[in-house]
Amino acid sequence: MKTVIHFLVLVSALSATAATFTAVYEVPVEKNSGLNRVNKFPLTNVQLDKTDDDQVSLKYVLPLELTGATNTLQFTGKLNEFNKADLNYDQSSMKCQDTNASLVCQVKYKNLNTNQALAADLMSRKFSGEELENRLKILSRFSTDPVGIVRIYRNTVFKIQK
Q: Where are the beta strands (DSSP E) in the chain?
């Protein structure tokens, strides 16, 4: 019950406002794969909005290192009776629930714009050695199975929409 209340409070506090959040995109990996140190990517300009009729909108841009192309996604949906959110964008879907530390959303993508060669090039400019090799494995995994986890942390910077 405490988890449900946190999500409700987080989203209810946004009534008629927009907030920018600290967030991370995570590509799922096996715990003992050695990839769990390189499977997280920062998300910038994440916006979570809620209207008075419990309509929720979550907007973010997927990291270029994963797609090689700009993908601005805006998932929308309604809070259900358990104060969890099932959100949709195009043919992609997202299921969100609250934890004590963050809002966690499981995402399944369809129809992303991708350029795997450019994504690999972007990674090779930022990383080297074993880290680059492991990040390229993450890229390969994401390009064949575009799923992930969006974690939105509680420290927020609110801004009023005009």
A: 18-26, 40-50, 55-61, 72-79, 85-89, 92-98, 102-108, 147-159
Query: 3-class SS at 116?
Result: helix
pLDDT tens column, 45-96 = 898 887 878 788 999 999 999 999 999 999 999 877 666 888 989 989 999 9
Number of folded domains in the chain? 1
Q: Is 32 exposed, middle or buried (0-12, 13-18, 19+ CB in 10 A)?
A: exposed
| Other beta carbons less than 10 A from residue 42's beta carbon | 10
Question: Cβ neighbours of residue 56 under 8 Å, at least 6 residues apart?
Answer: 11, 48, 49, 50, 76, 77, 78, 79, 85, 87
Domain that holds residue 12: 2-159
In the three-class reduction of DSSP (H, G, I as helix; E, B as strand; rest coil), residue 10 is classed as: helix
In whole angstroms, what is the distance from residue 150 CA to residue 42 CA?
Answer: 10
- Residue 109 sits at φ, ψ, to 5 deg, of -100, 150
Assign residue 124 the CATH number of its domain: 2.40.160
pLDDT digits 0-9 by tens, 19-51: 567 899 999 999 888 899 999 999 988 988 878
